[in-house]
Specification:
The protein is an alpha+beta fold. It folds into 2 domains: 4-34, no CATH class; 60-163, no CATH class. Helix content is 23%, strand content 22%. The protein has 4 helices and 8 strands, in the order E-E-H-E-E-H-H-E-E-E-E-H. The strands form 3 sheets. The chain has a 3-stranded antiparallel sheet with strand order 3-4-5. Strands 6-8-7 form a 3-stranded antiparallel sheet, with no helix packed on it. A hairpin with an 8-residue loop joins strand 7 (134-140) and strand 8 (149-154). The longest helix has 21 residues, at 14-34.
Length: 165
């Protein structure tokens, strides 16, 4: 039920005015809450190429064309095993080789989207700044100039502090 309200010489239906004000308020609050887009570093990803037997805990693996990552880099940082199925998922399905599967917490800690934060001298490939909770670690010392260098790694990765000393 719309009532008419006199505003000076203009007559406006109250329902329409309240509706537009509410819509504008919702849009304003929504834009403030979403803020800037995140850097995408740390987003989960699933590597497409997994070596037979899984990954080696002494190596870092970079998938540099990952369509799952806005950064296009999916990093597997020193994970032992196959991240395609966690220990918990394997046990829930009654799998027989569950002891070879990493726990979900380790997958979350060591498999995620990253970006290249440092490069060797002479490289013209752009680099990024690591967001809070990540640090730049030299991951790839061999390879082409477009991928060689440091990548953002979670600061709280078990064993990272000792590696950096």
């Amino acid at each position: 039920m719309n009532r008419d309200v006199n505003v000076g010489r203009l007559v406006r239906p109250v329902g329409l005015h309240v509706g537009l004000t509410t819509l504008m308020g919702v849009l304003l609050v929504g834009s403030v809450l979403t803020g800037c887009k995140s850097s995408a570093v740390g987003d989960p990803c699933d590597p497409e190429a997994i070596p037979e037997g899984g990954f080696n805990a002494t190596e870092a693996f970079l998938e540099t064309s990952s369509v799952q990552c806005r950064t296009r880099v999916c990093l597997v940082y020193k994970l032992s095993g196959d991240p395609s199925q966690s220990l918990e998922d394997c046990e829930a399905m009654g799998g027989g080789d569950c002891d070879t599967r990493p726990p979900q917490s380790e997958i979350d800690q060591r498999v995620y989207c990253s970006c290249r934060c440092s490069s060797p001298p002479g490289s013209s490939t752009p680099t990024c700044s690591c967001p809070g909770g990540f640090t730049c670690v030299d991951v790839l010392e061999l390879g082409g100039p477009g991928i060689e260098g440091g990548y953002c790694v979670r600061e709280d990765t078990p064993g990272l502090e000792e590696e950096l000393q």
